[in-house]
Specification:
Helix content: 25-40%
CATH architecture: 2-Layer Sandwich
CATH superfamily: Ribonuclease H-like superfamily/Ribonuclease H
Number of strands: 8
Order of helices and strands: HEEHHEHEEEHEHHE
Largest sheet: 6 strands, mixed
CATH topology: Nucleotidyltransferase, domain 5
Oligomer: single chain
Number of helices: 7
Shape: globular
């Protein structure tokens, strides 16, 4: 199997100042679909063995219409009426589809945990839904938002039952105010993905970003990652993913932090 090239692994997200100035509202799309599971190794049964990795695909989108059109056009070409799922891409279509994402102007990322290596703070003591919320917070707070100079940001997370509970409501929407205050920006966080949702097509395109991460870190097949120019970052022992924990310390063990 082909190894993931070093230049695509463990890179911090560089400054986006120039591109952000061209579009004052960046849309960050994050999906959890097809990026494995947060289950602990050795816990699931033989029919559903745990994956070695868990993570999120993310995209910073400057041209929302162009980004959404990647999956919409593919569905039209293939006469697909149901929701697009990247795992069903024909093998010969994987690289062209990923290249179309790159040509749309989107910056793509894959941020993940390798369960076989040093684990981030909060991994062992949290249940799966709290791990997911904690990782999304860390990804936004420490990996993406510091590198964006745009003042207005919309974050759309592909919906999952773990993002909701009766006591606290929508846990993704609840991130809006603390992230806005922490980064001095107007940040709107929401879930999406249902048919008819205004961001449904965007999230279907983002599914391919997540699938590229899966192919790279779980299957060791980085074809889509290379084609879309996806930057992959692994969260380790210096990263705090506790749902209500302190902000992570990722840059301390990486390269220089983003230039704001």
């Amino acid at each position: 199997m082909t190894k993931v090239p070093k230049e695509f692994v463990d890179r911090t997200i560089e400054s986006r100042k120039d591109s952000a100035e061209q579009n004052d509202e960046c849309i960050i799309l994050i999906t959890v679909d097809e990026v494995n599971d947060p289950g602990k190794l050795g816990v699931r049964d033989k029919k559903n063995p745990p994956t070695n990795t868990f993570g999120f695909g993310a995209a910073i989108v400057n041209s929302p219409d162009g980004f959404a059109m990647v999956s919409t056009s593919y569905k039209d070409q293939k006469d697909i009426e149901k929701e697009f799922k990247a795992k069903k891409l024909d093998p010969e279509d994987r690289v062209p589809f990923a290249d179309s994402i790159r040509k749309s102007g989107a910056e793509t990322f894959g941020i993940y945990v390798d369960k076989t290596k040093d684990l981030p703070i909060g991994w062992d003591e949290q249940r799966g839904s709290d791990i997911m919320i904690g990782m999304i917070r860390t990804i936004l707070d420490r990996k993406i938002l510091p590198a964006i100079s745009s003042h207005r940001v919309t974050v759309v997370v592909d919906n999952h039952p773990g993002y909701h509970n009766k006591k606290e409501g929508n846990l993704i929407e609840a991130m809006s105010e603390p992230l806005s205050n922490a980064h001095n920006k107007e940040i709107r966080c929401r879930t999406g993905g249902k048919k008819g949702d205004e961001y449904s097509a965007h999230l279907q395109t983002t599914d391919a970003v997540a699938h590229a991460l899966h192919r790279s870190v779980e299957l060791n097949e980085p074809d889509m990652t290379i084609a879309m120019g996806q930057k992959i970052i692994r969260l380790g022992e210096d990263d705090d993913i506790r749902r209500d924990g302190a902000r992570g310390r990722t840059e301390s063990t990486r390269t220089s932090p983003p230039i704001l």
